[in-house]
Amino acid sequence: MNTNYELLQFYIYKKLIRKKDAEEILEECKRLNTSVRDYLLAKEYITETTELEALAEYYCMPYVEIDMLDIDKSLFELFAFDFMKKHKIVPVSFDKNGVLLVATGKPLDCHAISALSTQISAKYDYILVPPVQIDRYVDSVAAVISTSLALDDLNTEKSEMMLAAMQKGNNLAASNENDVINNPAVRLVDSIIKEAIPYRASDIHIEPFEKEVKVRYRIDGDLQNRAEFPIEAYSAICARLKIMSGLNIAERRTPQDGRINLTIGGKEYDFRVSTLPTVFGEKFVIRILDKTSFHFTRADLGFTDTENVFVDKMLARPHGIILLTGPTGCGKSTTLYSFLKEVNDPKVNIVTVEDPVEFTMHGINQTQVNPKANMTFAAALRSILRQDPDIIMIGEIRDEETAEIAVRSAITGHIVFSTLHTNDAPGAILRLEDMGVEDYLVADALVGVIAQRLVKRLCPACKKKGRTNAKEMEILGIKEPVTIARPQGCQFCNNTGYKGRIAVHELMYMNDAMKNAVLTEKNLDVLRKLAIENGMVPLWNSCRNLVTKGITSIQELMSLNEE
Questions:
Q1: Distance between CA 100 and CA 113 in Å, rounded?
Q2: Which phi and psi angles does 547 have, rounded to 5°?
Q3: What is the mean pLDDT of the chain?
Q4: Distance between CA atoms of 191 and 143, rounded to whole angstroms?
Q5: What pLDDT digit, counting tens, does each position of 469-510 carry?
Q6: Which of 339, 423, 499, 523 is 20 to 30 A from 431 in CA distance terms?
Q7: Is the pLDDT of residue 170 over 60?
Q8: What is d(CA 421, CA 419) in angstroms, rounded to the nearest whole number?
Q9: 231 CB contacts (<8 Å, ≥6 apart)?
Q10: CA-to-CA distance for 307 and 311, rounded, in angstroms?
């Protein structure tokens, strides 16, 4: 209990808990016969990340992100993957004195430290990292090794019998189960899909060419080569993918769409599979979606304090339409989901119509369009209005009928969220009018428009800070040099210089001045100038702020001009 008391006092000192709660926490720990740490984690007073930051100081141990470490992967031969994940341990490297540096996520776990000594006899030094990062890193290494082994086996596979068994497709279940599981094509497909998760890929591209098949992952918006294998084995790969996604294996002339549901690392994922016939065979694109839950908040999505003031005003309105604009893949749907999560309340009825439903959210009625059954956005929206909704989310306004119903729904007392494909926020006004919505309806219904883009985050492990040169100062529109960060490239970012993405926004709030302008002004440049005068920060300026903060690069800023 003495250790519990000392640790509790340290948590108070670090302001992780309140002093007035200390006595009650100690009494509860005694009653439940548990440690302070386990109790605080269970009651969510602390998280594993905030706890480790405090424990690093408490035990005088370094605390870093695992991406900052130069890990000797040859040491993985000494430890089983399951062992490392169970005990939250990753061997990093030996120093010149033979001391093994170990990254640990459980500094208080004596069993983990004892188990480590049974694996290898050496002196140890420890460094703290978040446990979730250890799991992700071990999974990524395991997936890479699995894919490499499957590729090696596939390149040396000579058995026509096994390929023929795969090509039969519907008779696959009749094959010997062990033969199917151990088949190189089966293992390769499974490895390619599972490896994409720790790589943070959003899409998998499997593309046949004349002599080889290429596998590419879309990571942070860019496609990156991952693997190649012989074209001779592609028929087996196609059969495996089609069986997994419920597609017709005999149909090769027309595009098909299917789904794969898998649980990887304790999380349930939905893989949307699309095929397209090409000259050398069918190309597969697999979109990856995490089905378990939606964790994004406005802070995660890059909204600043200033932008949040406008968003709060939009979400507080009792009725009206809020639009997200931008090109495909810029995160519009993700931002809409984060707004729905905020307004989700048992007192309101929220109904969505989407194509497709990307994330399922508890307490929200989600509908998927089905054009084959005449379930279009407009048809679904008409039915939704008879379902007594308070809040409606429309995945996308694509036509005049959907635009008209959405705007009239907003006027008649509903909150409507939707998306449009326009280059900037003011452009949404003219796009609605081009769709046939009268300007007085637009002025009355529109609450605000948020234009969004995604830019790449500089890799925290290798980005290099420096003063701006003359050209960079000209681009940024400044007269005095400032410190910015530039991409370099390292093993943790696959030598790209970037890791992850962040959204930049352009928020146009429809105050009285903007509503009056909708009725009188049809020139986009004039509308944009007026929006800026009324508080809108252009996308360029939002991205420039990220450059000066060292979050993204000048190259990413310039990419906004290329659209």
A1: 13
A2: -65, -45
A3: 82
A4: 6
A5: 988 898 888 888 899 999 988 766 777 888 888 899 999 999
A6: 339
A7: no
A8: 7
A9: 208, 209, 210, 211, 212, 213, 280, 281
A10: 6
What lies within 8 Å, CB to CB, of 381 at 6+ separation is 353, 392, 394, 402, 405, 406, 409
Residue 236 above 80 pLDDT? yes
Which structure tokens are listed for 402?
């959907």
Give the E-state strand segments of 175-242 in sequence order. Answer: 203-208, 212-219, 222-230
**Band of pLDDT at residue 315, cut at 50, 70 and 90:** very high
Residue appearing with tokens 């978040």: 130
DSSP H or E run through 502: strand 498-509
Q: Are 301 and 335 in contact (CB under 8 A)?
A: yes
β-pairing, 256-264 vs 267-278, is antiparallel
The CA distance from 291 to 267, in Å, is 8
When pLDDT is cut at 50, 70 and 90, the band that residue 553 belongs to is: very high
d(CA 180, CA 563): 47
DSSP codes joined into one string, 325-387 = E-STTSSHHHHHHHHHHHH--TTS-EEEEESS--S--TT-EEEE-BGGGTB-HHHHHHHHTTS
3-state secondary structure of 91: strand
The most confident of 86-100, 101-115, 140-154, by mean pLDDT: 86-100
Give tens-digit pLDDT for 42-67: 776 776 666 667 777 776 777 777 76
SS3 5: helix
Tokens of 256: 């098909």
Dihedrals φ, ψ of 462, to 5°?
-130, -5
Distance CA 309, CA 404 (A): 29
C-alpha Rg value of the chain to the nearest Å: 27
Amino acid at 427: G
Report yes or no: 409 and 385 within 8 Å, Cβ to Cβ: yes
Owner of token pair 């005694």 = 30
Q: Dump pLDDT digits (tens) for 371-409.
A: 778 888 888 888 888 888 999 999 888 888 889 989 989
What are φ and ψ of residue 87, in 5° steps?
Answer: -95, 0
Quickly tell me which residue has 């500094």 as its tokens. Answer: 107
pLDDT at 371: 79
Q: Is the dihedral of CA 179, 185, 186, 190 positive or negative?
A: positive
d(CA 457, CA 500): 5
Can you spell out the DSSP letters for 443-481? HHHEEEEEEEEEEEEEPTTT-EEEE--HHHHHHHT-SS-
∠ at Cα 123 (119, 129), nearest 5°?
80
Please give the Cα distance from 23 to 425 (Å, whole number). Answer: 53
Write phi, then psi, for 474 (nearest 5 degrees): -65, -45
CB 358 within 8 A of CB 448: no
Cα 343 to Cα 311, 315, 316, 336, 349, distances in angstroms? 12, 8, 9, 11, 10
Q: What is the pLDDT of residue 446?
A: 94
